[in-house]
Amino acid sequence: MKVLLVDDEKHVRDAIRLLVNWEQHGIDTILEAPDGESATALIVQHQPEIIMTDMMMPIMNGVKLLEWLQANAPSSKTIVISGHDDFSLLRHTLKYGGTDYILKPIDPDQLNEALDKAIQAWSKDEELRQTNRELNIEMNTIKPMYWDKLLSGIIAEPSTYESAAEQLDKELQLTRNINECRVAILSLDTMERSVKNKFSQNMDLLFFSLINICNEFLTTDGRGYAFRHWHSDTEIVLLLWKDLLGAEAFLEKINEGMRTTLHTRVDFGIGRLHVFPADVTLSYQEARDALRKRNLKARDTWIHSMLKPAKAPQAALTFTQYEEKINLAIRSGSIEQIEEAIQQWMDTVKLSEVITLEQLDLWWREYTVMKRRWVQQFFSGISEDKVKEMLSDEPTSFIVPLDEQGILSLSQWQQELTRSIVHISKMLLENQHKDKNVIFEIAEYLQNHYHEDVTLQEIASRFFLSREYISRKFKQEFEVNLSDYLGQIRMSKAKVLLRNPHLRISQVAEMVGYQDEKYFSKVFKKLEGITPNEYRKTSNSI
After folding, report:
1. CA within 20 to 30 Å of 73's CA: 88, 192, 313, 531, which one?
2. Quick one: DSSP state of residue 273?
3. Cα–Cα dist 394/282, whole Å
4. What is the DSSP string of 21-56?
5. Stretch 321-327: mean pLDDT, rounded?
6. What is the mean pLDDT of residues 244-271?
7. How far apart are the C-alpha atoms of 489 and 497, rounded to whole Å?
8. Could you tell me which Pfam families the record lists for this protein (predicted)?
9. Which of 158, 190, 183 is nearest to 286 (CA)?
10. Between the CA of residue 266 and those of 290, 299, 313, 323, 405, what are the distances in Å?
């Protein structure tokens, strides 16, 4: 905490320094000024919590300083120390927020009491200020989420508008006399990969940035409002209610703002003009359809409307038609065969004049199901959690590969599809190799965990193998069953520990994985031919 002493007489400032136990009051910085003008400069620079000032000073006196403090440093607490017992000065002190008026010569007790009172007043105010800051932060965090949920609710169920009409009028200027609207959608599904990768660790920040850019344009003249769609992971909805015939041109203007700020353009779908709020859902659905049905192989606009329907796609092409070929390529482990299988699929895709987001989404869903099925086939008997873990490196949603013009890049898609399938093939080959070596991994595990309560079931669960398989393979590899192998390790460790005369037999037993000393002794004698005690006597006598 800081205090500023303002007095034109240095001996008074020195006296105040000596009369106060600053450390006791939690004050670690003491500043000084010979007049009010010098004090204002120090206050702006250091923002002291407590100010002790004289009233009669040159250049700027205490009266003027108090007035300046109220306007420029209202959170500071002021104690007046004056040589004049003047009611007008006292009244001025109280009027402009002074906490105390002390007369010279200064009484130490009175000064310390006044300082303590000022500090308590500042601390109480600061606590209130901190509470208000926290509330403001919380409100600024919650408020956008509130509007997201409320407006998403109106999009889904227009009848909910009535209960929020007054708030919408007050906060967004969406008045009751507005009876027409259009809905536009900005979807992250077709956003450039480079932008999404930049925000991959914080997609909320990307949404925040996009919504802010939209609202900088929309809210300036009360044209509309952009919000994150509560029921979608990828959509920002723009509810428009002013200058609706010029909406497409205005979306182009927003897109230019995107290009300037984020160095990318985005696709907007926009619905027709409809009655508000009754048909707002219809306009939203039209905007969504316009985006999903646009031809990703062509780029003639960034603003898509059902008023300009895309060319109808050809007969449905399904990814599952190529499942068997890709499955065989994966099993082969040959990158060349995988590339050939994918090339056959892509050659067929290239024949399509129209490819929509809707079609890509269908192919992605087919491929996702196929990947899961392959993993379950290749790694039979694994748990659902293990399946999820093995596919965790794969994207959870389809990122549409677009070039710089926003056109679907089939070459990027082919590369990504090939990468994904090669990854699955490598997992299969690694598993086959691991299957040959898993018994040695189990043996190593026993070497490192012999002192724990190791069971065949626990090992089976850890290595995702059946108990029967482990028992059979272990016996084949080591010519001894797993329990005897573990016993040999434990006895080997026990013999080393028994050479230490300071360890009791029960301690040795526990250290090598046996909680029962008698059972340990029984197993030891069975394997070594003598009891632990006899072994200890023999080994120590050698």
Report:
1. 88
2. P
3. 35
4. -TTTTT--EEEEESSHHHHHHHHHHH--SEEEE-SS
5. 89
6. 92
7. 13
8. GGDEF_2 (PF17853), HTH_18 (PF12833), Response_reg (PF00072)
9. 183
10. 14, 12, 23, 34, 10
